[in-house]
Amino acid sequence: MRKKILCFTLCLMVLCFSSHPKTYGAETNKNEDNQKLMSLYKKVETLTTIPWYVFAAIDQYERNVRHSRRDIPKAPGLIEIYIKPEVWTGPLNPNQKDTDPRTIGLFGGIGVDGNGDKKAEPTNDEDVLYTIANYLQSYGSDLDNIKIGLWEYYHRDKAVGLILGHMKLFQKYGRLDLEGHAFPIPRQYNFTYHNTWGDARGWGGRRIHEGTDIFANYGVPVRSTCFGVIEMKGWNRYGGWRVGIRDIDNTYHYFAHLNGFADGLKVGQVVEPGQLIGSVGSSGYGPPGTSGKFPPHLHYGLYKDNGRTEWSFDPYPHLKAWERAERNKK
Ligand SMILES: [Zn+2]
């Protein structure tokens, strides 16, 4: 099939392992958890001068990392921020299970008591949250200093960037539930797509197809599939005009071969499911502006970050589910 040799993305062979977002229990449990989490964040906001969405963003980043890695223990409570024992109790502390705030302080640990029981316990939600708040506050509570504090804590630009993106989303919507999705093409337009995950690609060396091609006419609207922040917008010789959106689960939604972008769309902007981001085209396979080397289609890819690396996973089942959900909504 001709379309099988068309379109692909930047990466080479990427090791693909379990990457599906975690599944939650009943929807009501999740709502309850979110309410409890929000009151924890708000409580620490009143104890410090750091806004709740900073804690929500750090917790969300760590939740995603924890759920995609096997080397971090399961969270004992609702807060999923993981602070290593040597960081909590102090690197030279002979007792790595120390919960006495005074000795922890002496050994340079960051663990503090947040719930007033005179113990600094890494298994207590309030203690963990207040420890992070206290750590950040030592740098200052305005955004610039929070950024510095985050960098000092993670020593990874990517982590800081992801957390800042989450902050924007939580601040804008004022809630924790930002899980909604939309199919990228509005349902009144004609489109076709098949599962082409992993197909070989000929142009530009040996690669596999990391995504799903949705064939539609030039100019058909392309919409955001998630709540997220525009992380990338621009040209690439493979993908042509492209947009990348980072969602609240640290998943990166990649849209390639666009004809053009929505007016005013810019990096750092918050978008939501169904929001116009561009239109279908056939850009790519050459220097900026190259177009028409293959039939128009949207290349849609999904990438996941686990705090260390990023890898792609198959968007096809997700696209199918979002398409079905929209048809059922009518
Ligand atoms: Zn493609």
SSE topology:
Blueprint: H1 27-47, H2 52-67, H3 85-89, H4 101-106, H5 125-137, H6 143-154, H7 157-173, E1 192-193, E2 200-201, E3 207-208, E4 212-215, E5 221-223, E6 228-236, E7 240-247, E8 251-261, E9 270-271, E10 276-280, E11 297-305, E12 310-313, H8 316-329
Antiparallel strand pairs: 1-4, 2-3, 4-11, 5-10, 6-7, 6-9, 7-8, 8-10, 8-11, 11-12
The structure holds zinc ion.
Q: How many E-type strands?
A: 12
Q: What level of helicity do the residues show?
A: 25-40%
Class inferred from helices and paired strands: alpha+beta
Please count the helical segments: 8
Order of helices and strands: HHHHHHHEEEEEEEEEEEEH
As for the number of domains, it is 2
How far apart, in Å, are the first and last alpha carbons? 33 Å
What is the percentage of strand-forming residues? 15-25%
What is the CATH superfamily of the largest domain? Glucose Permease (Domain IIA)
Overall, the morphology is elongated
Ligands bound, unique: zinc ion
* Overall pLDDT: 89
Examine the coordinates and then state which fold CATH places here, giving the name of the CATH topology of the largest domain.
Glucose Permease (Domain IIA)
Quickly give the CATH architecture of the largest domain.
Distorted Sandwich
Main sheet? 10 strands, antiparallel
Give the low-confidence spans.
Answer: 1-24
CATH top level of the largest domain is Mainly Beta
Backbone CA Rg: 22 Å
